[in-house]
Design goal:
The chain has five helices and 20 strands. The protein has helices at residues 6-9, 166-173, 179-182, 268-289, 309-323, and strands spanning 21-23, 27-31, 40-44, 47-53, 59-63, 77-79, 82-84, 91-92, 98-100, 117-118, 120-123, 126-129, 154-162, 199-204, 207-212, 215-220, 224-229, 237-247, 250-259, 328-330. Bound molecules: FE2/S2 (inorganic) cluster and fe (ii) ion.
Length: 331
């Protein structure tokens, strides 16, 4: 038999396709108010996770399936400050270690009786997870835009889930030329389809700012975006969204419409939430229709015009991520 060529001896590499690779970052997975006494299950970047409150009411996040027989830990409950599996009662501490096996109370607990534990934080009404086991001293700070922490702003919350890849969702909020078409009944009503000049700025590879009429957009790679009015005095309004990859074909969107005016008028927040959701739904059908599902793996694979400038900067940053050595989540 003739020696194998390199090609034959190395069958097609099982590299993850680009659509299955995501940056590691703080991602929100639930509203704080959704998590009370009962644990809840969520999915982040293809990983099922369980959120619960420990004995002190702090949120904790473990991988969702029990180390014993794989039962869903969100069916369990918090007891003795630990998450107890509903099947045979094993109790897991905040760190994911099993600390009690009721069938064998006197015996040492084997090392393999543990599940993954992920950093989790509550901030601006949301529960955020950092989807990687990491020592506390290496954990990056969870940063959000200052308006969200500013007590002058009342935040009207909303959320949506799209059947779309994170990259397509991000691009939809960096896109100015779609306003006059997709949002012609709402925010694009008075917007001209012509983009005379694309006014945007890349302050660092992770920050893209776009000036658009009286609006000023800012995006932080990979997941956060805000729209501000360019006025710096008087009543202020912002709209904020943050994206979490549920898996490679679903993205969760959490948002706030924030305002410093009409703070106490009943029902106004509900109207802002409703309107923000309506605008997102105008985008949804278009973004869910896009093919290929993630942005293609090279710039030349779709047509670009000057109005797409901010998206091109995003693509460059995304391709740097895909081809560089930044830590990543692989589904
Ligand atoms: S499956 Fe969880 S304790 Fe047995
Ligand atoms: Fe849009």
């Amino acid at each position: 038999m003739s020696p194998k060529t390199a090609y034959e001896s190395e069958p097609l590499e099982k590299l993850p396709s680009d659509e299955r690779v995501f940056p590691i970052a703080w991602y929100p997975v639930a509203w704080s108010k959704e998590l009370r006494n009962k644990p809840i299950k969520r999915r982040l970047a293809g990983r099922d996770i369980v959120l619960y409150r420990n004995g002190r009411g702090q949120v904790r996040c473990l991988e969702a399936y029990c180390a014993h027989r794989g039962a869903d830990l969100s069916l369990g409950k918090c007891i003795n400050g630990r998450l107890q599996c509903a099947y045979h009662g094993w109790e897991f501490s905040d760190s994911g270690r099993c600390e009690r096996i009721p069938a064998h109370p006197g015996r040492p607990i084997p090392d393999f009786a543990k599940v993954k534990s992920y950093p989790v934080e509550e901030k601006v009404q949301l529960i955020w997870v950092y989807p990687r086991e990491i020592p506390a001293q290496e954990l990056p700070d969870l940063q959000v835009f200052p308006e969200l922490d500013d007590p002058r702003f009342v935040l009207a919350a909303y959320d949506e889930e799209w059947q779309a890849h994170l990259t397509r969702v991000v691009e939809s909020v960096l896109d100015v030329a779609h306003l006059a078409f997709v949002h012609r009944k709402t925010i694009g009503r008075k917007v001209s389809p012509e983009i005379k000049e694309m006014d945007f700025d890349v302050k660092s590879p992770d920050v893209i700012s776009i000036r658009n009429g009286s609006g000023y957009l800012e995006y932080w790679f990979p997941q956060q975006w805000i729209l501000r009015t360019s006025k710096t005095t008087g009543p202020q309004f912002v709209n904020y969204v943050v994206f979490s990859p549920i898996d490679f074909s679903h993205t969760k969107i959490f948002g706030f419409a924030g305002r410093t005016f009409a703070r106490r008028i009943p029902g106004i927040s509900r109207i802002f939430s409703y309107y923000s959701r309506r605008i997102l739904r105008e985008d949804q059908g278009i973004v869910e229709s896009q093919h290929p599902r993630p942005i293609p793996e090279a710039l030349r694979m779709e047509a670009h015009v000057p109005a797409d400038g901010p998206q091109i900067r995003f693509r460059q940053r995304w391709f740097d991520f895909l081809t560089g050595d930044e830590p990543r989540l692989i589904l």
